[in-house]
Amino acid sequence: MSAIVIDGKAVAEEVKADVAKKVEGLKSRGIVPCLAVILVGENPASVSYVTGKRKALAAAGMADKSVLLPETATEQQVLDLIHELNEDSSVHGILVQLPLPKHIDEKKVTNAISPEKDVDGFHPVNVGKLLSGEKGFLPCTPHGIAVLLKKAGVATDGANTVVIGRSNIVGKPMALLLLRREYNATVTVCHTGTKNLAEYTKKADILIVASGHPHTVTADMVKSGAAVIDVGVNRIPDSSKKSGFRLIGDVDYDSVKEVAGYITPVPGGVGPMTIAMLIYNTLEAAENISLAEGK
Ligand code: GUN
After folding, report:
1. What is the pLDDT of residues 14-66, one digit of tens each?
2. Which residues does the record give as NADP(+) binding sites (predicted)?
3. For a tag on the chain, would you pick the N or C end, based on fewer CB atoms within 10 A?
4. Residues of the chain whose pLDDT is less than 70?
5. How confident is the model at residue 293, as a pLDDT?
6. pLDDT number for residue 191
7. Do 151 and 235 share a structural domain?
8. In angstroms, what is the span from residue 183 Cα to ligand 1's centroid?
9. Which H/E stretch holds residue 102?
10. Domain that includes residue 61, residue range
11. 96 Cα: distance to centroid of ligand 1 (angstroms)
């Protein structure tokens, strides 16, 4: 039997519609949630992600104070811009699109964002809160995956969950989130140092793949009925497309969908959820800041 395909686009639309409704409520109190996305350079994938994020902002009725800087911008220019946005009371969320050009220290930049405006959840204060179980901003991709699992009816309680990848953006926060008592999963993190990956993946009830490489997971590595979440976004040449490429994930979709119980497609799975949760976090930032200001 073929797997149930989890429609990330549809769930993302639900989340965004809910946020848009709440934005209207805030606006009636004179508060317009506002996000500033900072993009340095013209990395094609980053340009595409930032365009998607800004479109979603507009659709949710939020204000957009994004800044596009040239590839040659200095680290100090980026830091100065962040300090300016930290001080700007009309801005509720700040996001620096990664990766940054090589001459800019990503950690320095991420750490300069005020934790109250860190809608990516990358600042050490928010990372620490995720680790210790305090309320803070959750990184958008892991949060989106948790929402997808819940909406699809995939039980995480006691589920053998394997995360492939240990990035700060996906793998590590994903593992920490599913470890929380509210999800209560048994979590294993696999990475490039893992010996015999299939030994782990075959035992997974939930398999979250964020390796960054196409075909990391094939059908023979998947337990029958497992929920397989594909975080990969890989551009492969395709002359039949106007753009000259198409997107594939990290999972061998066609074969794995015949074994899995649930699967997310690429595109249309995790990607739209990342954007939806960013809009959600921006709303939360605006609510928190306006509350703190007594509005
Ligand atoms: N680059 C890839 N994913 C992300 C993300 O979620 N946030 C930011 N800021 N950059 C990214």
Report:
1. 999 999 999 999 999 999 999 999 999 999 999 999 999 999 999 999 999 99
2. 165-167, 233
3. N
4. none
5. 83
6. 98
7. yes
8. 24
9. none
10. 30-114
11. 8
- Calculate ∠ Cα 187-193-196, nearest 5°: 75
Q: Which two tokens stand for residue 56?
A: 């979603």
CB 188 within 8 A of CB 161: yes
| DSSP for residue 3 | P
- Which of 5, 63, 59, 6 is closest to 31 using CA atoms? 63
Query: Is 118 noted as a catalytic residue in this protein?
Result: no
**CA pair distance 58, 244, nearest whole angstrom:** 28
User: Of 70, 69, 72, 68, whose CA–CA distance to 103 is shortest?
Assistant: 72
Q: Is residue 8 part of a domain?
A: no
Same domain, 145 and 214: yes
What is the residue whose two structure tokens read 């596009």? Answer: 68
Tokens 């094939």 belong to residue: 218
In terms of Cα–Cα distance, which of 22, 36, 45, 119 is closest to 271?
45
The answer on whether 294 is annotated among ligand-binding residues is: no
Paired tokens of 59: 């659709």
